[in-house]
Design goal:
CATH architecture: Orthogonal Bundle
Number of domains: 1
Structural class: mainly alpha
CATH topology: YggX-like
Largest sheet: 2 strands, antiparallel
Helix content: 25-40%
CATH class: Mainly Alpha
Bound molecules: zinc ion
Strand order of the largest sheet: 1-2
Strand content: 5-15%
Order of helices and strands: EEHHH
Radius of gyration: 21 Å
Number of strands: 2
Oligomer: single chain
Number of helices: 3
Length: 107
């Protein structure tokens, strides 16, 4: 049975990535710790489109950093996970800081 993790992209407890190939060891550590195999498989499909769309040529030194950028964005790796439930409804209405203009009689 594969180990599971709480995926920071889909927010599910899901199987970890197994046997994938990563671009850099640091990225590998980060992605394996945070991303489940289902999201990884989604990236594998997206990656092909990204490479085609950006016309990435891996003979070009800029191609890999560009692809890694796309991957970080795809997995939201840079949205530091301080909030485990980003879709939780807020109890505060968005205009809670607006004062009622009728209260302002100072002029
Ligand atoms: Zn996931």
């Amino acid at each position: 049975m594969s180990p599971t993790l709480l995926c920071t992209r889909c927010l599910r407890e899901a199987p970890a990535i197994e046997g994938a190939v990563f671009y850099t060891p640091a990225l590998e550590q980060e992605v394996r710790a945070r991303i489940c195999v289902d999201c990884w498989n989604e990236w594998q499909r997206a990656e092909v489109m990204v490479i085609n769309e950006l016309k990435l040529n891996f003979m070009d030194a800029q191609a890999l950093p560009a692809l890694i950028d796309q991957m970080r964005e795809f997995f939201a790796l840079d949205a530091e996970g301080s909030r485990p439930a980003p879709n939780a409804p807020s109890s505060l209405p968005p205009d809670v800081n607006l004062k009622n203009p009728a209260d302002d009689e100072s002029e």
